[in-house]
């Protein structure tokens, strides 16, 4: 079994071993950091053996892309919420202006 298969298997075991409620624990985060650190070291070692070609596993690349998608989705939701608040404030301000003007 090569280094990438071993790291992938360890990541799978880690994700299977923890329920959704335990993923947020410090123990899970520490173990995940250790595994990803091992993966990076093993990839660098492998790259030095393979004439400098750095090849990360497909699973790690997918995880990075998924994290980026999640971050951009969260940012978009926050921007939409702020825009909605500004719109509601403008409508309320306009209504108050008309009410004071007509009174």
Structural overview:
The chain has helices at residues 3-17, 26-49, 58-102. The protein has a domain at 1-56. It is mainly alpha-helical. The protein has three helices and no strands.
Order of helices and strands: HHH
Q: What is the number of E strands?
A: 0
| Low-pLDDT sequence parts | none
Count of separate DSSP helical elements: 3
Q: Approximately what portion of the residues adopt beta-strand conformation?
A: under 5%
State the share of residues found in helices, binned by percent: over 70%
Q: How many angstroms separate the termini? A: 82 Å
Structural class, from helix and strand content? mainly alpha
Shape: rod-shaped
Please, what is the average pLDDT? 72
- Radius of gyration, in angstroms, nearest whole number: 24 Å
Main sheet summary = none
Structural features:
single chain; 103 residues; mainly alpha; 3 helices; 0% strand; rod-shaped
Write the layout of secondary structure elements.
Layout: H1 3-17, H2 26-49, H3 58-102
Short overview:
The chain is built from three helices and no strands. It is mainly alpha-helical and 103 residues long. The longest helix has 45 residues, at 58-102.
């Amino acid at each position: 079994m090569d280094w990438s298969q071993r790291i992938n298997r360890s990541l799978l075991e880690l994700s299977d071993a923890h329920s959704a409620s335990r993923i947020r624990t410090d123990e899970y985060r520490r173990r995940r950091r250790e595994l990803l650190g091992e993966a990076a070291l093993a990839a660098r070692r492998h790259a030095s053996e393979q004439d400098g070609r750095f090849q990360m596993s497909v699973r790690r690349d997918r995880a990075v892309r998924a994290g980026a998608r999640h971050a951009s989705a969260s940012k978009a939701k926050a921007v939409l919420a702020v825009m909605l608040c500004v719109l509601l404030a403008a409508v309320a301000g306009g209504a108050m202006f008309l009410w004071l003007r007509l009174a």
